Amino acid sequence: MKLYAERATAAGRALGLGPLEIVEVEARKPGKAAEAEAIRPHMADSHVIACDERGKARASRDFAAEVSTLRDRGVRQLVFLIGGADGLDPALVSDAQGTLAFGPQTWPHALARAMLAEQIYRAVSILGGSPYHRD
Fold it and tell me: If one looks up domain 2-127 in CATH, what number appears?
């Protein structure tokens, strides 16, 4: 995960993207509501996409195009939310400007973070014309 974040940050500079920061929050109490309370401060002044199994699945090129469109519209900070073992609080999902699914399966949140970091790096490499992505 860290490797993809570093690669995305380095490749994204020339494209006006980045840095890619991974922020993990720790709720003071158990449950989705407490986790949502810990997450909310990181959503301020950001375009938020909630990762959710019922969200919108995208091909890698479509995901890259969405990131590019948001950048071109002046979005300065894009935040992706990944919930804990119980998923995201429904209020966070409804407050997000978009959703993202990694398919209909349920993934452990640690694996979802690695998959998201790789897809962000892949999007940056697509936008930069790198041969990393192959159709």
Answer: 3.40.1280.10
Measure CA of the first residue to CA of the last residue in the chain; give whole Å: 23
Is residue 122 packed enough to be buried (19+ CB in 10 Å), middle (13-18) or exposed (0-12)? buried
Distance separating alpha carbons of residues 18 and 78, to the nearest angstrom: 9
The answer to whether the pTM exceeds 0.70 is yes
Q: How far apart are CA 62 and CA 75, in angstroms?
A: 17
Cα of 99 vs its chain's centroid, Å? 9
45-74 pLDDT per residue, tens:
999 999 998 999 999 999 999 999 999 999
On the CB side of 86, how many CA atoms lie within 13 Å of its CA?
Answer: 10
What residue has token string 């900070």? 77
Q: Judge whether residue 104 has pLDDT over 90.
A: no
- Cα distances from 79 to residues 13, 102, 105, 133, in angstroms, run 17, 16, 22, 23
